[in-house]
Amino acid sequence: MSDAFFEPLTGLDAWFLYAERHEAPLHIGATYIFEGIPQIEGGRGALGLARTIEERLHLVPRYRQKVMWLPGNLGSPAWVDDPDFDLSYHVRRAALPSPGDEATLRDYTARVFARPLDLNKPLWEMTVVEGLSGGRVAVVNKVHHAMVDGISTVDLATLLLDAEPTPASFGKPKRWRPRRAPSRGELMRAAVSGLAPADALKQITKLRPRQVVDSVMRSPWSGGLRLALTYLRPGEPLFFNRPIGPHRRVQSVAVPLQHLKNIKNAFGGTVNDAVLAIIGEAMWRWLDDRGEVVPQKLRVFAPVSVRDESQRYRLGNMVSAMVVEIPLGAMTPKQRIRRVTSATGDLKRSRQAVAAGTLTHLANWAPSTLQALAARVVTTQPQFTRQSVVNLVATNVPGPQMPFYTGGAQLLEFWPLVAIYHSLGLNLAIVSYNGSVHFGMLADRDLVPDLDDFAKHLKQSAADFERAAGSKRPSGSAGRRTRGARGGRTPRAGKQPPQKAVDLGVDDQAVVAAPDGDRGNVGADTAAEVHDVV
After folding, report:
1. Residue 194 above 80 pLDDT?
2. Do 51 and 138 share a domain, yes or no?
3. I need a labelling partner for 12 at 20 to 30 A (CA). Which of 291, 318, 344, 472 fits?
């Protein structure tokens, strides 16, 4: 088997494949909007994206690979070269009907994201969309979560985008030749040989039960076990926490990064605290307007990256996660942010992301058959699909604070999107780019018919918080607002503010790499703080 190429999926990557269902495809991605006219003479713009990808595809070989499965999931699936790779299958063209407005583009994006990827081909697609108003061109991109996590996706985009209007040159690639894939028998033998070493198993069997318990409780695994109990504790379901269907809605909101900095400067905390507070405010307003019973807290599953610089361009999932609670209920911007800020310090000190990382490593030790069975149970049994452990997912991805281009055409904005899943009928993705923070929303079409209303509340809440922050600026400061300006709503009778909040996320890598808090302090206006935003 020396001449055969394959790369086994990690336990976490494989889980995203096992857990996928027709009504719950597990791909992530975004819709990118470019200017229509390139800024350089002869630039191909976004319409020439297929040519750009063809020139650079050798930089990301995973995009020419597919998954090879074993019968009965008796071993981990593996990445192998696709001998039938056809770039035209993965890079497609479409055109919007008149008037080509953003509402039409959102509907088209929703239909694209509702369709599962073909699991027998390389797990990605890009669609170049013409007909957008103003001559702009959109690119709808989706890639299976088994291939990349959000952090890697951004780094991957830098291989397809340029920091200058003039495209970077990577030289003429060599002709691609697929490497031989192993037979199923060869892959099975490799899976068996990769099991836990015999010496390690002997050491484990020598331990007494009490020794095992004591060792685990004194190690970081104890945090993981406590966190597992947090994950399993039922939450209070919202109206969109019901089994989802196969159809989708898409919305997006862009907020100036400087506005979020103004908010944190006025009320304390970090930019990320401001983001959390705005999400809580918008969710409360939306639920209140719908006449829903508003719980005290919004439970959020927040993936965070544990990818360091040495793993920057490595594909695959290198993520941990936190279950966090955002305060709901009526309160002023100052009150809401202070409650969030108070709780974020507790969360950073708790090292919850490290504990969650310990849990995700368990997947690498679980047999493939067991993983597949567990995924099927969790995704099909009513006690799991109808019980809301969390209310939504909010995934954070850092982006560049500078303009990017493709073929000389500038990327103007984009809508980041993360998959919804079973009883999670609405999820958020938050990405910063070129001075703005972009909120992308993907929802079940039938469970959330008024997604536009939530987007409006999110945008208005951000504006109200910034207005309230303006009234707090010292006399004579730039952009000073009228002192009487007020953000947020007046607390309504009979509505009591919650007593505790927990942060959505801190600097992802700092949580893991700097548990003592030095690098985790991202309150200053620095690049680290921008990372903290997303």
Report:
1. no
2. yes
3. 344
pLDDT of residue 344: 65
Element at 50 (helix H, strand E)? helix 49-56
Residue the block writes with tokens 């109808």: 386
Q: Give the burial class of 95: count Cβ atoms within 10 A of its Cβ; 0-12 exposed, 13-18 middle, 19 or more buried.
A: exposed
CA-based nearest residue to 3, from 121, 175, 177: 177
Enumerate the active-site residues. 145
Q: How far apart are CA 520 and CA 534, in angstroms?
A: 14
Q: Is residue 160 domain-shared with residue 239, that is, in the same domain?
A: no
Tell me the HSE value of 141 on the side-chain side, using a 13 A CA sphere.
Answer: 23
| Neighbour count for residue 94 (Cβ, 10 Å) | 13
Q: By the 8 A CB rule, do 15 and 375 touch?
A: yes
* 57 in the same domain as 122: yes
Q: Are residues 242 and 372 in the same domain?
A: yes
**Among 413, 423, 358, 440, which Cα is nearest to 387's?**
423
Residues 136 and 242 in one domain: no
Torsion of CA 59, 62, 65, 67, to 10 degrees: 180
Task: Tell me the sheet residues that pair with 256.
Answer: 436
Give the range of the structural domain holding residue 29, as residue numbers without chain letter. 7-186
Kindly tell me if the per-residue pLDDT of 180 is higher than 60: yes
Q: Which residues pair with 21 in a beta bridge?
A: 24
The answer to whether position 348 is within a domain reads yes
Helix, coil or strand: residue 483 = coil
Interhelix angle 150-160/49-56, rounded to 10 degrees, is 100
Q: Decide if 191 is inside a domain.
A: no
Residues 451, 513: one domain? Answer: yes
Give me 31's structure tokens. 């819709």
Residues, the chain, total? 534
Percentage helix, strand, coil, to 5, in the chain? 40, 20, 40
Higher-pLDDT residue of 28 and 398 is 28
Q: Are residues 505 and 382 in the same domain?
A: yes
458 Cβ neighbours under 8 A, 6+ residues apart? 253, 278, 279, 282, 439
| Residue 460 to residue 490: CA distance in whole angstroms | 15
Record the tokens describing residue 465, joined without a space: 């918080």
Choose the weakest-confidence range: 259-263, 300-304, 370-374.
370-374
For residue 404, tell me if it sits in a domain: no
Token pair in block for residue 244: 């989802």
End-to-end CA distance of the chain: 44
pLDDT digits (tens, 9 = 90+) for 109-140: 999 999 999 999 999 999 999 999 999 999 99
CA angle 301, 285, 491 (to 5 degrees): 115
Could you tell me if residue 428 is inside a domain? no
Cis peptide before 99 (omega within 30 of 0): yes
Residue showing tokens 């056809």: 86
Q: What is the tally of structural domains in the chain?
A: 2
- Amino acid, single-letter form, for residue 48: G
